[in-house]
Amino acid sequence: MKYIEQIKSIVLLFLVLLSIVLTFSIWTYTPSLQVIEESSQVDQLMVGKKKNLQEVIKPYRILVRDRGEWKGTIGSTAINDLMDILPNWKGSELIPVQNNMSIKKMNDFIRMDQRITFFFSEEVPIKVFHSIVPFSQDDLPELTFNKLIMDWSKVDSEKVLTVYFLSGTHRTLYSTEIKMNEVYFQSTVLQALEGLVAYQEVERSNGLSLYVPKDEIELVQYTYYIDEIHPDTFRDILFYDPAIVRKNVESQELLKYTDGMTLMTVDVKNRYLNYVNPSTESMAELPASRLLLDSFEFVNEHGGFTGDYRLTSINEQKHIVEYQLYKQGFPVFSTDTTTRITTTWGENQLFRYKRPYFLLDLDINSEKSQRKVSPGLSAVDVLEKSKQLQLNEVDDIILGYYLKQNDNNLLFTLEPGWFALSQGSWKRIAPEATGGGKNGLE
């Protein structure tokens, strides 16, 4: 027992040294981490191809005024060509031109010779359009426009194309200049506008003018086999943890997906879904530019623009952004807005997402037929005789397609015709204006 104290000291010394060695090892240890290859990361589920901004923020009509005559687009060819050109340009500083423009001044401004007017369905935030056509200044104001007007009267003499941004809602006018020579302008812009058809202005006493094709138009009526994206794919995209989502078959025409917090209902007959996350609802003020960019990026992230969808509506108060389906350059309308993609933004994330999940990709050649659509003034005449909608209440009269679901639920027919737009909703002008025999509006 006489060595017991010495043994304790040796053991204590050993433990102290061991503690020092272990502490040093921990401090100096560098784990051998394997680099994660990009290809090993989980791929984002996609239902379609991603698109550029100019493919979604796209005009529905381009109108040219020159030598006292009107010409305009039918279909998408010229519109697509010009929208592809715009990102190659650069605007100078944005200059305010006029506020509180009267309706007469706006009509007169568009009516001037050597001007090209792009008609957009909704007011486009200039901060978002900056992503399509950059400006020399970065601190752009929070302004919007629904008509872009190109004045080429100075291209020959001063090598400058003046571009105006007109807001019909706010009645403001801004301008910028783009350096451009006549040869380039002729070979790009004017060449893209070859093949336009004659248009006619319909003047109104208390409203902006309407513009319609002057002559009879021949459009193709299409019939499509229905393809679709399975709703389970959207379950996997939209829900935080798809593994815990329960699928309930409510009826032959209604499915429900829920994880207890969020809900997705599926209208099987119309192939339309409605996803909502109540916990994210918010009424905090959002500028139109942020609202639009958040909406576009969300839908585009999973390739959600599964057709020619174009911006058609922004509601800042309700945080709603809508995109309308187009086919062959014409808007496609249906009952219950089943041809629109709608997003509602909440607390820094999506609150609601409504959209069709059908695809119009394969048309039946044998079912195609030519339909003659009467001149625009015929549609105007029907409107003036109708008691449902006054001409001064109409925002525009446009050619489009009505989506008709066939009885077997496997085919969709696109019937061409005239449509009147008013306060964000549409009315189908009855077949008399397209050569049929029924009066009034549908």
TrEMBL record:
First and last residue of the signal peptide: none
Keyword hit for DNA repair: no
Keyword vocabulary terms for this entry: Membrane, Transmembrane, Transmembrane helix
Species in which this protein is naturally found: Ureibacillus suwonensis
CDD domains (alphabetical): YycH_N
Segments forming domain Regulatory protein YycH: 5-441
Name by which UniProt lists this protein: YycH family regulatory protein
Transmembrane segments: 12-30
Cited InterPro entries: YycH, YycH/YycI_2
Keyword Transcription in record: no
